[in-house]
Write a structure and sequence with these properties.
The complex is a heterodimer of chains A (about 290) and B (about 240). Chain A has about 290 residues and is mainly α. Chain A contains eleven helices and two strands; from the N terminus they run H-H-H-H-E-E-H-H-H-H-H-H-H. Chain A is about 75% helix and about 5% strand. Chain A has a two-stranded antiparallel ribbon with strand order 1-2. Chain B has a six-stranded mixed sheet with strand order 6-7-8-3-9-10, sandwiched between helices. In chain B, strands 2-1-4-5 form a four-stranded antiparallel sheet, covered by helices on one side.
Chain lengths: ~290, ~240
């Protein structure tokens, strides 16, 4: 029972982590919360469904196509809804984000309707029994692909020139620009990577629950945002850790306390962590630069 | 030195405003090829705004800024770096969470010539041996003087033709300031033109060929450094010498 819950918790935790990365990368650079990010994840899921069902491409091709198109969507959203507001008060891009969120949900409803749709793939239903744990094919995919994506992101950010430039931009936008870094391009890149990761998460969740629907980004978005804050918003390892922790807490609380109270418990933990460490587990304290 | 050469940087009638406040009021200045030019003045006189404008950080300016004869007034900051102007900003601007080596590598971000970048890295470690000892250290954990050295070395990694220095002496011990200024003179000898903003007028004028004095957004005096050092206003206000 315990190991089963840990497996389930890790599975959903990986999904939270993938989505949380999008929040944290954008916040790290622009200090805004992209509240449309959950809906970008939803669009990614629908796009995966579209490529799989309408174009009949193999599953991994659907992942790639959806990630690319969703990345372009993320870049477009930044250009249209956030860049013109760069110098505005912090509340203004927040309102713009809520507008984008409503817009994306409405577009999804127009194209795909309001009802829940199944994910038409035979992949994922097969299960394996390892000791006391039953694990499905899709759970293995979620665990493996999420790990690969996160290790890949980590290496990109730490080891490549562009990744280092991205970190520089997130530390200080002006000083990065003074080094010759095209900071607008770094911002676009953060949106692109975050959106592509969300799209992958969206497709995997679609298969896992065999359901895709226009408002699926709401709770996923809130949970992933919570994970980002828990881990320390702005911190990439923080988002990964926060996502996994939140998934585990939810699964264990659901199993041992009450399914109805699992969200209450995870949000209570968030509040406690923030009371003790306002910057999150791996977050940096705000340093006043003189 | 080389005062008959042509101007590498020309600023004409530059004005910078923040909302209702005019920080720079139509100043004109130039830096000739190979010169060190000092821009001195008290806090809030508009020196930093001037440097930021050259680097492209303010876009609602009036006036023109030309670099090597080309108008760069409307260029984005990263294109200005690529054109050959690097700035060491006020407060040094080192990226605290990155290592010394990462900071230096980012200095060469606009360059593609890998071999020469490696060579330049070595010459930076010769110019500031202390940076070599601290290669792997996070930049934010170093002392103010070391951070200033890093900031200068990092700016040089772009191989600039013009180096803008904003208050390189700020908050540093006199012995470190001396070391920094020796490095500045050496950099200039190697062919980099320098525009130096300073409150430490004494230090700035002893290193510079020419100087401008700024007061509340305007240039009030302009002369060769030697004459400025004996100028009565400069002596009383900026050098603390009264007659």
């Amino acid at each position: 029972m315990l190991f089963q819950q840990i497996t389930n918790g890790l599975t959903i935790g990986m999904i939270y982590a993938l989505i949380a990365l999008g929040y944290t990368m954008v916040y790290g650079i622009l200090k805004i919360v992209n509240f449309a990010h959950g809906d970008i994840y939803m669009i990614g899921s629908f796009l995966g469904l579209f490529f799989l069902k309408e174009l009949q491409v193999p599953l991994f091709v659907a992942f790639i196509f959806s990630a690319v198109v969703t990345a372009l969507l993320g870049i477009t959203i930044e250009r249209a809804a956030y860049r013109p507001l760069r110098k505005a008060d912090r509340i203004v891009p927040l309102i713009s984000a809520l507008g984008v969120s409503t817009f994306l949900i409405s577009v999804a409803q127009l194209i795909w309707g309001t009802e829940m749709r199944p994910f038409p793939t035979s992949f994922g239903s097969k299960t394996y029994v390892v000791g006391s744990v039953t694990i499905s094919e899709i759970q293995i995919l979620i665990l493996v692909l999420s790990c690969l994506l996160m290790v890949g992101l980590h290496l990109f950010v730490k080891k490549t020139k562009i990744g280092t430039a991205m970190r520089a931009t997130s530390i200080n936008l002006t000083n990065a620009a003074l080094l010759g870094i095209n900071t607008n391009r770094m911002i676009s890149l953060a949106f692109a990577i975050g959106s592509a990761l969300a799209a992958c998460a969206g497709i995997m969740v679609g298969i896992y629950y065999n359901a895709v629907y226009p408002t699926m980004g709401y709770m996923a978005g809130i949970n992933a945002f919570t994970a980002a804050v828990l881990g320390g918003i702005g911190s990439i390892p923080g988002a990964m850790l926060g996502g996994v922790l939140l998934g585990l807490v939810e699964a264990l609380a659901g199993a041992y306390i009450s399914t109805q109270y699992k969200s209450v418990i995870s949000f209570a933990i968030l509040i406690i962590v923030l009371l003790i460490r306002p910057s999150g587990i791996l977050g940096k304290k705000e340093i006043n630069k003189v | 030195m080389m005062s008959n050469q042509q101007a590498i940087l020309e600023i004409e009638q530059l004005s910078v405003s923040y909302d209702a406040i005019k920080a720079v009021k139509g100043i004109s200045l130039h830096v000739k090829q190979g010169e060190i030019v000092a821009l001195i003045g008290t806090n809030g006189s508009g020196k930093t705004s001037t440097l930021q404008s050259i680097s492209g950080l303010h876009k609602n300016n009036q006036g023109t800024i030309r670099f090597e004869g080309k108008d760069i007034t409307k260029l984005e900051p990263h294109k200005i770096v690529a054109a050959g102007i690097s700035q060491v900003p006020e407060g040094r601007g080192v990226l605290a969470d990155l290592t010394v080596l990462e900071n230096l590598s980012l200095g060469a971000y606009v360059r593609k010539d890998k071999k020469n970048i490696a060579l330049d890295l070595q010459s930076m470690f010769e110019l500031f041996p202390r940076l070599a000892e601290r290669k792997k250290q996070l930049a934010g954990t170093m002392s103010g003087g070391e951070q200033q050295m890093l900031a200068i070395a990092r700016a040089l990694m772009a191989r600039p033709k013009l180096l803008l220095l904003d208050e390189p002496s700020m908050g540093l011990a006199p012995i470190i300031v001396k070391e920094i200024f020796q490095a500045i003179k050496k950099i200039n000898k190697d062919g980099v033109s320098i525009l130096l903003v300073e409150q430490n007028a004494n230090m700035a004028l002893s290193a510079a060929d020419r100087g401008y004095v700024m007061e509340t957004g305007s240039i009030v005096v302009e002369d060769v450094a030697e004459n400025l050092r004996s100028n009565d206003i400069v002596k009383s206000v900026y050098l603390g010498i009264s007659n």
